[in-house]
Amino acid sequence: MALFLDLDNTFVDSVSIYESAIRFMSRNAKKYGFASAVEFSELYDAARKEVKADLHDSPSNRLRLIYFKKICVSKFGKLEPDRILKLESDYFSLFQSGIKVRKLKYASEYKETFSLLKSISEKQKLLFCTNENLRTQLLKLKVLFPKSIRYLILSSEEVGKEKPSELFFTKAKELVLRESVSAMIGDSLKDDVEGALKYGIPAVHLSSIFSRSPQTAKKRIRISASSGTGETTYTETNDIRSALKLFL
Predict the structure, then answer these.
(1) Residues of the chain below pLDDT 70
(2) In sequence order, what DSSP letters do the residues of 62-102 get, joined into one string?
(3) Which of the following CATH numbers is that of domain 2-12+106-246: 3.30.70.1490, 3.10.20.30, 1.20.272.10, 3.40.50.1000?
C-alpha cells in the first residue's frame, strides 16, 4: 500500500511563509539596491505575474530565482548574478526560519502528526506529491520532518508536468512500484482531490492544517474522466491529524 501526500498548505503553511519572507525582504529593499519597499514589492509582483503567465503550464513558473532575475534586470538594466543569487539565498533562509517558527508554535500538533506519520510509514509507503521544484521542497522537508520517518518525494519539476496531470499521477504510481494507493491527501480541490479521483485514487481534502475542533465529513464532487463525467465522493477534514488517522 502507498499513501500520497501533498506538502504545501497540507503540512506547512507555505503561502503565509512565502508572503512573510517577501515582506521582510521588501522592508530591507535598500540593502539590495532598491529605492524603497514599494518599488521592490511592485517589481516582484510584476515579475511573478509575468512568469506565471509565460510559463503557466510549466513547473518552472514557481522558481523564485526567475522572479529575482527579472526584478534585478528591470531595476538595474543588466544582469548581476551576485545580486540575484543573494536575493534567492536570503529568501530560502527566511522561509526556512518561518517553518521553524511555526513548528515551535504548533509543537504539540506536529509531535502528534509525526507520530501518526511514523506509524503509517511502517505499513505503507509515503510519497509526497508536490507542484514545486525539488530543491525548494527538500529545504522544507529538511527543516520540518524528523529523520525517523521514511518517505519519498515526487516534484513536478521531475515530471515536467504539474498535478492534476495524468503524467504526474502515473509517475507517482511508478515510484511506489504500482502498489495500491490508499488515498491522496491535499489542500487543493483541483490538483489533489479532482486529480486523484480522476485516476482512480481516493481523496482527502484538507481545509486547514490544524484545528481546535477537528471535523470530518463525506462530500460529493463532479469530475470528468476518460469514462465520462459524473459525481463521486471524497473525504473532507480540517486537520491533518484527522486525515492521517484514517489510514492507521
Answers:
(1) 225-228
(2) G-HHHHHHHHHHHHHSS--HHHHHHHHHHHHHHHHHHHHHH
(3) 3.40.50.1000
